[in-house]
Write a structure and sequence with these properties.
Layout: E1 3-5, E2 24-26, E3 31-33, H1 49-53, E4 60-62, H2 70-81
Antiparallel strand pairs: 1-4, 2-3
Pfam family, one: Fer4_7
Keywords: Iron, Iron-sulfur, Metal-binding
Domain 4Fe-4S ferredoxin-type: 1-29
Amino acid sequence: MALLITKRCINCDMCEPECPNQAISMGESIYEIDVNRCTECVGHYDTPTCQQVCPIDNTIISDPECVESSDRLWEKFVLLHHVAS
C-alpha cells in the first residue's frame, strides 16, 4: 500500500528529502506522495522514513485508495532502481 500525506501536514519539509524513491513533492497546499513511486521504503529500510521523521502523529498514513502487497512494493522498488531480483 502506498502512503498518503493528510491535511494535518504542516509543510515542515522533513519528509521530502528523506524519501529514497523521490516520491514526495510539494502539491498545491501540502506535500503529496506519488503512489507510482512509493514503496513504503521496501528495498531501502524496515519502516517508511517519511513517517519516522514527520513531527505530527498520524499525518502520513496508508493510502486506502492504493492497496498493494509486499510483493508489489518490492516489484516497484526493483523497477525504480533497476535491481536484479
